[in-house]
Amino acid sequence: MTTPFIVEMLKRERDIQLFTTDGHYQGRISTPDVSYAPRLRQQVHRTDDPAFCLSLSKRIVSRKILNQQALIRAHTSGQDVAESIRTMKHSLAWVDRSGSLAELNGFEGNAAKAYFTALGHLVPQEFAFQGRSTRPPLDAFNSMVSLGYSLLYKNIIGAIERHSLNAYIGFLHQDSRGHATLASDLMEVWRAPIIDDTVLRLIADGVVDTRAFSKNSDTGAVFATREATRSIARAFGNRIARTATYIKGDPHRYTFQYALDLQLQSLVRVIEAGHPSRLVDIDITSEPSGA
After folding, report:
1. How far apart are CA 260 and CA 163, in angstroms?
2. Which of 118, 169, 250, 274 has its CA 20 to 30 Å from the CA of residue 226?
3. Would you say residue 13 lies in a domain?
């Protein structure tokens, strides 16, 4: 991409968005644009409406838990995960009864703990882990999903930018410096089908093994080697390029990127009309693996 090309695009008021080959958003080159100011004002206005935020967040969390359950069932039918499934079902039943975001986050947290307990039963002994660990990840499995979540998060930031919303103004996640909370909101329903499933399959297929990770003796942090990182990034790129039936009630198969755009288009309509129930439902219960 040459400088004259960039200048010409800016003269035409065309944004240039920069991505890596695996969909990792890097940033954009653009001229000042106020044409979407009303949309941004509406987005901010909706975040000041507790009822709207809670209703939209319930929809996101419910689907996240349902997709997590679907993934577990896709990888096992054993009794080892039965207790985790029961806990997740219990949490799901209480999601809609939540009276505040704090309550909702509590139920989501209980479901997440049970989910990662179940995932621990789905991996070989050498990849065994004790729950979710972040900043730093303390085992190879958590290191892999953390890397995957980072790729997914940055990809979604880019998609949000394409739809002229602010990635740092969310509804479920609370404001935090440097945290693209809207991206975190949207990625909740995608974690299981895009990242967790991919990591489980990389392990099952022997693409990566524990020798591809190193441990920091001072902090206990476990990180993937450069080769393993490339394998994970490549698997992520392949996964989002495949098609699956992502949208509830829609039999058509889409790539992740196309389905994400549909999700964001529906979010724009939700923000404009104020009806959270109209958010596109990302449903993998009929096709968890996207195969």
Report:
1. 11
2. 118
3. yes
> Does the pTM of the predicted model rise above 0.85?
yes
Residues 197 and 260 in one domain: yes
CB 154 within 8 A of CB 25: yes
The chain-wide mean pLDDT, for the chain, equals: 89
The SS3 call for residue 198 is: helix
Q: What is the pLDDT of residues 124-134, one digit of tens each?
A: 999 989 889 88
Give yes or no: residues 249 and 210 share one domain: yes
Q: What integer pLDDT is reported at residue 21 of this predicted model? A: 45
Q: Is residue 47 situated within a structural domain?
A: yes
Helices (DSSP H) in 24-138: which residue ranges? 37-47, 50-75, 82-95, 101-120
| 206 torsion bin: left (phi>0), alpha (psi -120 to 50), beta (else) | left
How much is the average pLDDT of 11-20? 64
Nearest CA to 187 out of 203, 201, 167 is that of: 167
Judged by DSSP in three states, 13 sits in coil
The one-character DSSP state at 43 is H
Q: What is the mean pLDDT of residues 142-149?
A: 95
| DSSP letters for 172-239 | SSPP-TT--HHHHHHHTTTIIIIIIHHHHHHHHTTSS-GGGEEE-TTT--EEE-HHHHHHHHHHHHHH
